[in-house]
Amino acid sequence: AQRTAMLEALRHDTTHNDAAILDGLQRRMMDNAEVQRMFNQADTNGDNVLTRREFKFLMSRLNNKQQHFAGALEGVNVRLGEPVAPDRTVLYKIFIAQAIPFVGFGFMDNSIMIVAGEHIELHLGAALAITTLAAAALGNLASDIVGVACSNKIEDWSESLGFKMPDLTKAQQSMRWPRIAKLAGAVVGVTVGCLLGMFPLLFIHHDDKDEEGKGKGKEKDATK
After folding, report:
1. 66 and 15 in contact (C-beta within 8 Å)?
2. Contact of 174 with 85, CB cutoff 8 Å
3. Alpha carbons 107 and 191: distance in angstroms, whole number
């Protein structure tokens, strides 16, 4: 009876509320064979009854196993029920999953703004008597409208490529490093996207405007 009770106590022992646990790790306590082996080692006289001295020996072995498990957590000091901070691999996945869609957002926003602003200035600037900055603002308006319409498509496309946000609990999402990873991914992604979105400038030439400006300058010099 004593051995049966000891086996059940050790097999289901969770070390109360002071146990260090790692979220997502399926920790399994000692199975029956392991407990039986430790019990037999402690029961030196083989009578299936532990004396006080044998019991102390058994508990010392159990404490050693608990310390070994605590060392495997690599210094993560977590109390039962508290969230576990995501490791570097998870933070990297958060960064990438946040950066890729923002590359698309930045690329689309800047390229559409440049193309739309250029066409508005060339074809509507004189008719509406608007400045270059006003044309750029209208181009930005057009790019924002397209961005709102296509934002879900870009996110779906990113997830279809495998860049999915890791599953985090609400407590983990509110932690410092996951929030920093998301912010850094958004900043880096939109920066890269905006730089790539400047490619229309390679195909926009202002030779006609420059020649027109030079012609006006010559006319002014002639009148002088």
Report:
1. yes
2. no
3. 9
